Amino acid sequence: MTRAKKASACIVGSPALEACVAALVTASALAAADSTPLPRGVAGGKTDLVAEIGYSTKREPLAAAEQATRSMLSKLKAGRRRPAVVLFLERTGRAKAADGPRVGDRVKQLAAAPTYGSGGPTGTWGPTWWAKQDREAGFQVLGLAGEVTARAHVAGGALPAEPGGLRDRAEALGRQVDPSGGGRLGLLFCGAGSGAGEYLSALRRSVVTDVPLIGAVGEPGDYVYADGRPLTDPAGKPAAAGQLLLMLEAPVKVAFAGIVSRNEADAPSVLAEADLASGHAMKQLAGRPPDVVFAFSSVGRFRTCSLNDPRKELARLQAAFGRVVPVFGGFCRFQMGVDSAGRFSVGRERLMLVAISGGKAKEKAR
Amino acid sequence: MRPRIWIAAVAGCWLAGLGCGPGREPSPPTASRPVAAARPASRPAASRPMDFFAAVGSGRSGDPAAAAEEATGQALAAFRQAGVKPVAAVFVHRGQTAAATTDVGRRVREVAGVPTYGQGSAGSGGLSVLLLGGVGLEVKAFALGGEIPHDDGPEAAVARVRKLRAQCIRRGEELGEQVGRLSQGGLAIVLGAMEGEWQALFCTGLHKRMGAKAPLVGCAGGWAARVYSDGRAPTDGQGTGAQSGQLVLALGGRISVAAEPVSLSNPHDPAAVAAESRHACRTVLQRLEPARPRLLLAFGGGSPDTLRDVTGPDVPIFAIPCVGQAGTDADGNLHVGSDRIVCCAVGEERGE
Question: Is the reported ipTM for this assembly greater than 0.85?
Answer without folding.
Answer: no
